Amino acid sequence: MKNALKKVFKHWELFLVIFLIVECAVFGIANPKFLRADKLMNSVVNYISVCIISLFVTLVMITGGIDIQAPSIIGLTSIIIGVLWSDAGVNIWVATLCAVIIAALCGLLSGFFIAYCGVQPMVVTLGGSFLYSGLALLVSGMSATPAYQGISGFPNKEGKVYTDFRFLGKGEIFGIPMQIVIYIVLILLCVWILHRTKYGERLYLIGVNQQAAEYSGINTRATIMSTYVLSAVSAALAGILLTANMNSAKYNHGASYTLAIITAVVLGGTLNTGGKGSILGTVLASLIICFLRYGLPICFNVDTQNLDLPVGIILVLVVLGREIAGQGMLSGLFKRRKKKASAA
Fold first, then answer.
1. How far apart are the C-alpha atoms of 224 and 203, rounded to whole Å?
2. Are 244 and 168 in contact (CB under 8 A)?
3. Rounded to whole angstroms, how far apart are CA atoms 329 and 320?
4. Running DSSP on this structure, what letter comes out for residue 302?
5. What angle do CA 207, 212, 216 make, to 5 degrees?
6. Mapping DSSP to helix (H, G, I), strand (E, B) and coil, where does residue 209 land?
7. N or C, fewer C-beta in 10 Å, the chain?
C-alpha cells in the first residue's frame, strides 16, 4: 500500500489531470449542461478568489509556512475601497491602490512576526484573520451605508458594455471573462517566479532546510516575509475582483474561503512541511474543487450548505495518504498487529 501511494504521489499532477477529466465526465453524464463552456467559465469566475490566492499561498507553504488570514484581507480590501470611494469621495483607482497598500502592510506585519520573531505561522495568521476581520468591521462602521447592506453603485457601464472599475469583474476580452484573463496571467507569473528565478529556488531551499539555506547566504527571514506580502496582495486583488463583480463592498467578503484555499494548495501536491509544491498542481486542484462545488448542486441536487463536507474529506484523505506514503504509518501498524497475533 505504501509503495502504491508513493507511485501516485510521484506523478501527482498526472493523477490530478485524470481526476479532473473523470470528474467532468461524471458530471457531464449526469447533466449535459455542466459541460457548456460558458457555464464552466462562470463557475471559475465565481470561485476566482480561491484560485488566485491559492497560487500565492503555495509560495508560503513551500517555505514551510501557512497563511489562513488571506480571506479576512479580502473583506478588508473590499470595504476600504467602498468607504474611500463612497464616503470619502476618493477616486476609485486611488482607493483601490490604497487598499492594496494596506493589504501589503498587513502581510508585512504578519510576515515580520513569523520570520523575525519566530512565532508559529499558524498562530500569527490565525490572529491576523481575527485582527483584519475586526479592522474590516471597524472600517465599515465609518460608512453611512449599513454594514449588512454593503456599498454599491461603483463606476459601471456605458450602454451594454462594462467600463471603468466594473470592467475588472464583469468585462470580457475576446469572449473570455476578464477575471479568467487575470488568473491566467497570474498563473504564468507564478510559474516564472517559482520555476525560473533564483527567488523560487530560495523558497524550495528554505522549505527543505532553513538553517542550511541561511548558511548558503540566503536571507531566509526576508524571503519568508516576502511570501506573506505576496499572499496578502493576492488577497487584495481577489477582493478587488470580487467587489467589481458583485458591485458590492462588504467587510465579510471571502470569510468562508479558508478551507478551500488550504485544500487547493495541499491537494495540488504542496507539502504542509515545505520544500515541495508546484503551481500547476495548485491550479489543477483549484479547478477540481471549483467544478466539484459547481457540479454537485446541479447534477446531484446537493445542498450548497453542505459543499464544505466533500472539500474537507478531500483534504483529510490527501494529508492522510501523504503521511502513509512518506512514513508507512498504517503498514507499521499492521505489522505490529501481525506480530502480536503471531505471538499470541
1. 8
2. yes
3. 9
4. -
5. 110
6. coil
7. C
Q: State how far the Cα of 235 lies from the Cα of 124, in Å rounded to an integer.
A: 17
pLDDT, one tens digit per residue, over 43-89 is 999 999 999 999 999 999 999 999 999 999 999 999 999 999 999 99
Pick the CATH number of 2-343 from 1.10.3470, 2.60.40, 1.10.443, 1.10.1060: 1.10.3470
Task: Name the residue with cell 513569523.
Answer: 114
d(CA 299, CA 309): 17
User: Helix (H, G, I), strand (E, B), or coil: what is residue 174?
Assistant: coil
* Domain regions of the chain by residue span: 2-343
pLDDT tens by residue, 89-115: 999 999 999 999 999 999 999 999 999
Q: What is the dihedral of CA 169, 173, 176, 177, to 10 degrees?
A: 0
The conformation of residue 162, written as its DSSP 8-state character, comes to: E
Grid cell, residue 2, equals 505504501
- Cβ-based neighbours of 283, under 8 Å, separated by 6 or more: 51, 55, 187, 268
